Amino acid sequence: MSSCSLTFQVVLVCVIVTQWCCIVLIVSTSPHLSSDLGAYLVPIGIDSDSEGRGEDEGLLSPSLLHILRFVEGETNLNESDGGNSVFVDEVFGIATIHGKGDYIVVEDALVGDKYRSFRWAEAKNPKNHLITICTQASLGGVEEIEFQSHAFEGPISVSVFIEEDIPQSIYSLLTFLECKNLRNVAIHLVLQNDKSAYTEPSLHVGMLETYLKQMRFGAQHKKTFCEQADLVSSQAVNYNHNLPYPNNALRNIAVDAAWTDFVIVLDADIVPSMELSNAVRQAILLSSENDISNTVFIIPTYEVRKESTLPSTRNDILEWVSQGKAQPFYKDLCWKCQKHTRYDIWQQDHPNRLLYEVQWKDAFEPFYAVHRKAFIPYDERFKQYGFNRISQVCETHVAGYHFKVLYHAFLMHRGFKVHGKFHPSKEADMKRNKALYLQFQSELRINYPKSSRRCY
């Protein structure tokens, strides 16, 4: 790509620090940069008597700012080799072109202070064996991450697909993270690499500045601010399928942004039990390097009734099952997709048992932990609904991996899955992706010629 037409110069860094960002005053040699740019940098969540938490606590990335200016028509586009316009230039070292050029990724666009602390701790002591949850969402679905964040004592890497109205979306994400106190989360923005896909922004600089500056007057105003933020966020356009939802690309991006040795790829509405991290660590300690390189550690998943307090231990979830308040995931919608986890074994009382092995069967799509270097990327041709996770688990099987179930951990989906609650295009999505899956199976025979395993 060509060099960027704007040159940003940081002239003051971290005057005031929040959990999420610090003030960065930017000047530009370009006449296209207006003085209103600072409105995007007003910090929120500041107590009147608070002190800075350190100079490296975090920045709103120059790439993100460049995108905001681009949307308002104040910067020029760069042209990629393929002739497709892009928003940001590699000179910033943060925003990148993903895959074949379909998406722009702004990695770590919004990063909580606890997430950053986990990274420092892991760098100092890699034997901590931290695990990162990697997930993805549209702007309309990102609210589910609140339950994940509060249940998991580790880093969460989240890819968020921004379909339209970029300034409004960024503001909604920032205020959501701050008001819900999601400090262990890092947000990676994923944008379609096509300006025509985005609408005229509804939230302009002056309006944004009005909302954000309220947080400068102290914590006593946070409740009022967050109530107003909810009103502003409610104006954001939910994901409405103007663009095909790239769930597999988003999953890969979230994993690429993770830095721990082990990752767990979950959907945004899946909540971990409190024992998850310890169960994975115990499995790691019991496994040889060779085992770790070709094993996925499956976590049984349950649908649970929506209540204010969720089960936190294995005994809790078993009690909920006995009371009819929980059941295995997809039991009523796609039992063959989950039953090979062998819930009949997991629900037996084996207090000294940490793992048991199961066999892959057709349509199996469990959630699992895996070493990041052993992670097999999701096929990004699968979009929308159907076969996107099944295909990846199928390839994992063909590649020769073992499937072992963690005995002392579980996952939860809040609410029971029922028929008729899916989006209108589900059947069309399934038909399209089923044809792609048949092609995918044929390709696996070519890609793994020495494997005797098949996906049927």
In short:
With 456 residues, the chain is α/β, with parallel strands linked by helices. The chain is built from 13 helices and 18 strands. The radius of gyration is 23 Å and the shape is globular.
Keywords summarizing the entry:
single chain; 456 residues; alpha/beta; ten-stranded mixed β-sheet; four-stranded mixed β-sheet; 13 helices; 20% strand; disordered N terminus
Strand content: 15-25%
Low-confidence parts: 1-61, 74-93, 231-240
Main pleated-sheet profile: 10 strands, mixed
Task: Output the radius of gyration.
Answer: 23 Å
Please state the structural category. alpha/beta
Strand elements, count: 18
First and last CA, distance: 44 Å
Mean pLDDT: 75
Summed up, the helix count is 13
Write structural notes for this entry:
30% of the residues lie in helices and 20% in strands. With 456 residues, the protein is of the alpha/beta class. It has a 10-stranded mixed sheet with strand order 5-6-9-8-7-10-16-12-17-15. The relative contact order is 0.11.
What's the SSE blueprint?
Layout: E1 8-17, E2 22-28, H1 62-71, E3 78-79, E4 85-86, E5 95-98, E6 103-111, H2 113-124, E7 131-138, H3 145-151, E8 156-162, H4 166-179, E9 185-192, H5 205-213, H6 222-233, H7 247-257, E10 262-265, E11 270-272, H8 276-286, H9 289-293, E12 295-298, E13 301-304, H10 314-322, E14 326-328, H11 343-346, E15 355-358, E16 368-371, H12 388-398, E17 402-406, E18 411-414, H13 426-447
Parallel strand pairs: 7-8, 7-10, 8-9, 12-17, 13-18
Antiparallel strand pairs: 1-2, 3-4, 5-6, 6-9, 10-16, 11-18, 12-16, 13-14, 15-17
Helix pairs in contact: 4-6, 12-13
